[in-house]
């Protein structure tokens, strides 16, 4: 009996030690499937794989909603997209230390979103969804700002555009709908009823399943292009991956922005969807960002070493405003000195002859900025955001817009290829950052665990001397590394290692776009090493004890 008992324990022990991970997965699956229908579960899963440009093209304002409740999993995805955290920081940029707050109202209570834990905390009992009017929906979101962090309501409105845009986009990715309501809100009533202290309301956004089949009525149409700007393409990054890659930086390399990259960024900023909405007759094509009253008063300018250009969304083209390099003048006039060497500066200004209200206009600067950040991330670029409204006349002079009294600069966005890339290799729900310093442009990064391989493409000026310095965590990939360029081993590799990382330096000649493969001797296993060792040790000790007792 004793032998059978010991044998049973030995056989069961590995399963017992692995049970917590298995059980956790089962609980998670049960929680999702209990609250989501099969159709909505597919939406929950598929949103992560939808290309960023597809999601941007699906963006539309929806005002009619079903009574169907929004599952908490989908709601939390929308809130994460609005103001959550990624492995690189926050999913949206900020000019004033993220002063915004989001409250969620359903039929029974009000909750406050906690970005740090991507969760909801109870705020107060009651149904406040009809507070200050608007459109009826299962969920109502109130976006407020903390006046202690940002006392300037103008700046708070600019910032509010970033989460507003990502709420629109995540709703579109999940086949939900929303619309932004700003003008006409009774702010004093909202403050009183929601028991706000040092916060002031900015916008209200209903959220729910569309009453009509809006997304099913989207029909692919021709993608915008012109002689100046190539046809819009889908990037290799999904919407969620783009959000996870957003961060602010102005440490760029000397590599110029390509025509394709410029086309993508300008299109995302203020262009037109590549879907035609056939819901009504005549059909229409939505814009990449919303606008109060569909007035679209913003003007988009692009400045590089050759001049300043205005983007014309209807034709998806550029017209030159002034020749010559104005980047230093723009940086000085906008009081953003770091912008002077940026390969590309996007300047935003609003036209007061086309506005609905000023408050509803400046928010478009944030809407545009969020799209530019995400599109930049999707194409391996970095962006940074700066105010440009301190001296309007100086900024207009730098842009070559003197005499245009109806224009009001709001902000600038700098864009470039990073001098240091930070990619993530993900395994067993853990992120391992891979850092690469280079004078090339890196794209198509991938981690291949079965083949112990990291790969990416490098490009840049042809017939130049390229280099990469890659830092790899030693608990991901280790041993004696080899580096291959287009499948051929290189001899220029220098490897240095310590207890935590391996540093690999190598060079190459850029005769064309090249594929780099980094292969190690050992790779992180599918199952955690220490639990496996522990299991073996316990089994060995059990066998030894058993044998000694039976000698």
Distinctive features:
551 residues, alpha+beta, NADH Oxidase, 4 domains, six-stranded antiparallel β-sheet, 28 strands
In words, what does this structure look like?
- There is one protein chain.
- With 551 residues, the protein is an alpha+beta fold.
- The chain has four domains: 2-33 and 530-549, no CATH class; 61-208, NADH Oxidase (3-Layer(aba) Sandwich); 224-416, 3-Layer(aba) Sandwich (NADH Oxidase); 420-520, Immunoglobulin-like.
- The protein is built from twelve helices and 28 strands.
- The chain has helices spanning 2-35, 38-46, 52-58, 72-83, 153-173, 187-193, 239-245, 259-270, 327-333, 358-378, 392-399, 529-549, and strands at residues 85-86, 89-90, 100-105, 109-114, 119-125, 139-146, 177-178, 199-208, 218-220, 275-277, 298-304, 307-312, 317-323, 344-351, 382-387, 407-416, 420-427, 430-438, 441-448, 453-459, 465-473, 477-478, 482-485, 488-489, 494-497, 501-509, 514-519, 522-523.
- The strands form seven sheets. Strands 5-4-3-6-8-7 form a six-stranded antiparallel beta sheet.
- β23 and β24 form a beta hairpin.
- The chain starts with a helix and ends with a helix.
């Amino acid at each position: 009996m004793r032998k059978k008992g010991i044998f049973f324990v030995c056989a069961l022990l590995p399963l017992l030690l692995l049970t917590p991970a298995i059980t956790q997965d089962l609980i998670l699956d049960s929680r999702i499937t209990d609250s989501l229908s099969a159709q909505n579960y597919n939406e929950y899963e598929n949103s992560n794989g939808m290309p960023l440009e597809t999601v941007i093209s699906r963006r539309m304002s929806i005002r009619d909603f079903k009574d169907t409740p929004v599952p908490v999993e989908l709601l939390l995805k929308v809130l994460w997209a609005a103001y959550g955290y990624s492995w690189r920081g926050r999913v949206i940029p900020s000019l004033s230390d993220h002063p915004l707050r989001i409250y969620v109202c359903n039929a029974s209570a009000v909750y406050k979103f906690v970005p740090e834990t991507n969760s909801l905390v109870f705020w107060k009992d009651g149904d406040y969804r009809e507070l200050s009017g608007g459109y009826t929906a299962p969920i109502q979101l109130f976006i407020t700002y903390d006046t202690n962090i940002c006392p300037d309501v103008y700046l708070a409105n600019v910032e509010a555009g970033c989460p507003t845009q990502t709420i629109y986009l995540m709703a579109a990715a999940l086949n939900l709908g929303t619309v932004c309501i700003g003008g006409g809100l009774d702010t004093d009533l909202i403050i009183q009823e929601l028991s706000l202290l040092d916060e002031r309301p900015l916008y209200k956004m209903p959220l729910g399943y569309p009453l009509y089949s809006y997304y099913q009525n989207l029909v692919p149409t021709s993608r915008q292009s012109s002689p100046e700007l190539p046809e819009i393409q889908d990037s290799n990054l999904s919407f969620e991956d783009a959000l996870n890659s957003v961060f602010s930086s102005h440490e760029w390399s000397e590599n110029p922005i390509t025509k394709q990259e410029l086309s993508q960024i300008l299109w995302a900023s203020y262009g037109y969807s590549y879907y035609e909405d056939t819901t009504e007759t005549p059909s229409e094509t939505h814009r990449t960002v919303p606008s109060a009253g569909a007035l679209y008063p913003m003007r988009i300018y692009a400045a590089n070493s050759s001049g300043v250009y205005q983007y014309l969304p209807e034709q998806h083209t550029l017209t030159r405003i002034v020749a010559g390099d104005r980047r230093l003048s723009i940086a000085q006039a906008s009081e953003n000195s770091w912008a002077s060497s940026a390969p590309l500066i996007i300047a935003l200004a609003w036209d007061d002859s086309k506005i609905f209200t000023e408050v509803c206009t400046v928010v478009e600067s944030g809407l545009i900025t969020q799209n530019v950040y995400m599109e930049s991330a999707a194409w391996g670029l970095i962006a940074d955001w700066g105010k440009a409204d301190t001296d309007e006349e100086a900024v207009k002079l730098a842009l070559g817009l003197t005499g245009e009294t109806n224009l009001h600069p709001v902000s600038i966005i700098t864009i470039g290829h990073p001098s240091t890339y930070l990619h993530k290799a993900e395994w067993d729900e853990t992120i391992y950052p891979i850092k690469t310093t280079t004078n090339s442009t890196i794209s198509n990064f991938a981690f291949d665990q079965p083949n112990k391989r990291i790969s990416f493409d490098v490009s840049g000026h042809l017939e130049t001397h390229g280099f990469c310095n890659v830092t790899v965590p030693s608990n991901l990939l280790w041993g004696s590394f080899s580096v291959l360029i287009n499948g051929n081993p290189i001899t220029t590799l220098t490897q240095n290692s310590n207890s935590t990382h391996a540093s690999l330096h190598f060079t190459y000649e850029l005769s064309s776009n090249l594929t780099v493969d980094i292969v190690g001797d050992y790779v992180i296993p599918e199952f955690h090493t220490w639990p496996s060792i522990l299991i073996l040790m316990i089994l060995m000790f059990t066998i030894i004890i058993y044998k000694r007792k039976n000698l």
